[in-house]
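BUG: 3D viewer hangs when loading the predicted structure for this chain

Environment: internal workstation, default settings.
Expected: structure renders.
Actual: progress bar stalls at 90%.

Input used:
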Amino acid sequence: MKITKILLPFDGSGHSINAAMYALDLAKLYGAHVTIVHCYNEWSSTLSEVLSDNSLIAEIRANRRKEAEAVLQQAKDIFENQEVDCTLEAVDGEPGQVLTERSKAKAYDLIIMGSHGHSEIAGLFLGSVTHKVLNTIYCPVLVVP
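Structure tokens produced before the viewer hung:
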């Protein structure tokens, strides 16, 4: 199996940190590029009904983006000075949907993700995002505890 592109969903949880360590090791072994993605919700449509102040809405969106970038900084710290080519991306959207769409594009040879994350609703044995990805993904997935 040839691994040149790895997708690493990252939310800052202990499981995603463990997955990042696996991704780092495999990327070193295969000389692979790692795309580290943090999915977040920039805006809740239910808030639109409550808020009409555009400057407040813009501030909320900017804060959510900053929070996402802070999470990605944790991943950057893991990969820094490790001689592995990586890209950091903060993406607005639900993680299961974003990861499924990316796998359909067949741009990645492997997805490495934690078994659980920071989602509010966890699955019985696996995190809800991990469960969704395993049922809809189009490439191999390595699930790390």
